[in-house]
Specification:
With 492 residues, the chain is mainly alpha-helical. Helices cover 85% and strands 0% of the residues. It has 21 helices and no strands. Helix 2 packs antiparallel against helix 8. The longest helix is centred in the first third of the chain and has 36 residues. It is found in: Cell membrane. Its main location: membrane. It is a multi-pass membrane protein.
């Protein structure tokens, strides 16, 4: 997380606000493709984890081989779609200075290459997650971050156009990551070896339909975010995209811990459904909602309070509107986390057609809403205020969908998730804001806010936010961790 944030500072300094804005406008879809990749991975992982939960290893091999072919087809379709849409956007919509148009188009083509290899890597991400190999995920994530940092350090010395060089290097990195994942999975997991006889036409058809509906839901998120970026560009030009891009980057890094925790819980939730234990599946889904919210809140509270000073330390030159964009997009993410586990539960059951269509429509309301607000003369940040409103509506819909598909009790969700999440975090935020009311902005206030916020969040969660079952599970985890560490530290 910290490597990625520092790399962003270096890239912004090397490219300048305008080129960085162009990069986030045109190639920002690459970052959003990580969400598409996550949704598609979840769809594939659902079938893999379900097979493991049912104890059918042979079916697991069929799922993997079918998913490889399926995602190659999806990757080719996405490439064709992006190229067609890109021709229209560059010719009719985007506001890019003429002298930077060639660089922007080059970045776009690199983005398309990255998109294909990101989608092609989905089956390998899914098999790693299904086997709950979080160590490999962590190591590969660190290697990827260090590679991007090295690229950012070298960027000022690039011998060609820096923007084009940066986009090309990121595309090459995506190819290398896929190669590493494929080699590792082939050696580690027998079910990940390519076998023609393991292809199942019926399964491919079923998975294609499931992945298709999952992609529609993920595309709603991508269209919402990148569509809003295009609308901001039309009204305010490329510089506003720098502020919006920085806000998305900070949000992505702050939510990293929550996303990783959900990634580790996904297999358990789906395996519980696969083994017929619906009660445990719902229980884990609600825990996922609450704990992903807590993890994000732990970092979000001090970040929101001290955002102006954090951005000064991080970037020095802060594009206009960046502070308010950052604060609002983090609030929207906090609301989203309150129903994150329910999304996994719905996917575990498998009947997702109506759910994905409705959630996509809700998310796409951001586009006409943002356009109308800016057309009426409202300031840029109002698009994120509207996004928060849409997230609240979407959270309510996910709860209703989970009730219909999984049997979730709404009263349990309101008390065990919404109430037990919002109350401790609200109290902790009220305590954490105290230093900013009496002290001037500075490093000491930032440090004090961070300490007070961390302690208040931990204590409020412990005494106000946990059920007796969650207390028991956390104590078991801590005991196991302490035992493991103490065993390893004992002299031989």
């Amino acid at each position: 997380m910290f490597i990625a944030l520092y790399a962003t500072r270096l890239v912004l300094h090397a490219l300048g606000a305008e080129d960085y804005g162009i990069f986030n406008l045109v190639a920002g879809v690459v970052a959003l493709l990580s969400f598409l990749n996550g949704a598609m991975t979840l769809a594939t992982q659902r079938y893999m984890s379900y097979s493991l939960g049912a104890g059918d290893r042979n079916q697991l091999k069929k799922v993997f081989n079918s998913s490889v072919l399926l995602h190659l087809i999806i990757g080719i379709a996405v490439v064709l779609l992006l190229e067609i849409v890109g021709m229209y956007l560059f010719g009719n919509v985007l506001s890019i200075p003429p002298e930077r148009l060639h660089a922007a188009k080059s970045i776009f083509h690199f983005m398309v290459v990255t998109a294909f290899f990101t989608i092609a890597s989905v089956p390998y991400d899914a098999i790693i997650n299904t086997n709950e190999n979080m160590l490999f995920v962590a190591v590969l994530g660190i290697i990827e971050s260090v590679a991007k940092l090295s690229l950012a350090i070298y960027l000022p010395y690039a011998f060609s156009d820096r923007l084009i060089f940066y986009g090309g290097a990121l595309a090459i990195l995506a190819v290398l990551l896929l190669i590493v994942k494929r080699i590792y999975c082939a050696r580690k997991y027998d079910e990940s070896r390519i076998r023609r006889h393991a292809l199942d036409k019926g399964l491919i058809k079923e998975m294609f339909a499931y992945a298709g509906w999952s992609t529609i839901g993920a595309s709603g998120v991508i269209a919402k975010s990148q569509g809003v970026a295009v609308i901001l560009n039309v009204f305010f030009g490329a510089v506003i995209n720098a502020a919006f891009g920085i806000a998305n980057q900070i949000n992505a890094q702050l939510t990293y811990f929550s996303v990783t925790m959900l990634q580790s819980l996904n297999p358990q939730i789906v395996k519980s459904e696969g083994s017929g234990n619906r009660r445990r599946m719902i229980q884990l889904a609600m825990m996922a909602c609450k704990f992903s919210f807590f993890l994000l809140a732990f970092f979000a509270i001090p970040a929101i309070i001290e955002m102006p000073f954090v951005l000064k330390l991080w970037l020095h030159n802060i594009p206009e509107h960046t502070v308010v964009f950052c604060r609002l997009i983090i609030i929207a993410s906090l609301i989203n986390q309150l129903s994150s586990g329910l999304q996994i539960a719905v996917h575990a059951v498998g009947r997702i057609k109506k759910y994905q269509v409705i959630i996509s429509i809700l998310l796409l309301l951001n586009l006409p809403g943002s356009w109308l607000l800016l057309r009426a003369g409202f300031p840029p940040f109002t698009v994120m205020v509207f996004a928060i409103f849409v997230e609240v509506i979407s959270c309510g819909f996910r709860a209703l969908a989970a009730r219909r598909l999984t049997g979730l009790q709404i009263s349990d969700y309101l008390f065990k998730v919404i109430w037990q999440a919002l109350v401790p975090v609200t109290v902790a935020a009220g305590i954490a804001v105290i230093p900013s009311l009496f002290m001037d902005e500075g490093f000491f206030r930032l440090l004090l806010t961070g300490i007070i916020s961390s302690l208040s969040v931990i204590l409020c969660i412990k005494y106000l936010g946990l059920t007796s079952y969650e207390h028991e599970k956390l104590e078991e985890m801590l005991e196991k961790a302490i035992t493991k560490v103490s065993t390893r530290l004992k002299p031989v």
